């Protein structure tokens, strides 16, 4: 762990946990990126769900029966994939937050609001 020294106006030295602050900043950026990915995935999930709804509303005929069956299956798989992606991004966010909490527990002076 790299600790630099900050000197106050009184000449006293206090440790400045630069690597921890940098790690918290990196994790905060990663949280924002993951939240953006969740927002994109939610849009895609909504689109996939709307497409499935339109397929379910479409009347089945002899000519479109196979298409509808396969398209509905593809939509359902797509919906599950988007839900899984959202859950994975949320898990990443939870992990990043836990890492930030651990850093702050070990190095309280790394708080960015000090």
Would you mind describing this structure in some detail?
The chain is mainly α. Helix content is 72%, strand content 7%. It is built from two helices and two strands, in the order E-E-H-H. The protein has helices at 18-57, 65-106, and strands at 4-7, 13-16. The protein has a two-stranded antiparallel ribbon with strand order 1-2. The chain is rod-shaped. Residues 1-14 have low confidence and may be disordered.
Strand-and-helix sequence, N→C? EEHH
Helix content: over 70%
Query: Are there runs of 5+ residues with pLDDT below 50, and where?
Result: 1-14
Oligomeric status of the shown chains?
single chain
Taken as a percent bin, the fraction of beta residues is 5-15%
The gyration radius over C-alpha positions equals 24 Å
Q: How many E strands?
A: 2
Sum up the overall morphology in one term: rod-shaped
Mean pLDDT: 87
Q: How many strands, what sense, and barrel or not for the largest sheet?
A: 2 strands, antiparallel
Structural class: mainly alpha
Short descriptors:
114 residues, mainly alpha, rod-shaped
Quick recap of the structure?
The protein is mainly alpha-helical. It has helices at 18-57, 65-106, and strands spanning 4-7, 13-16. The protein contains two helices and two strands, in the order ββαα.
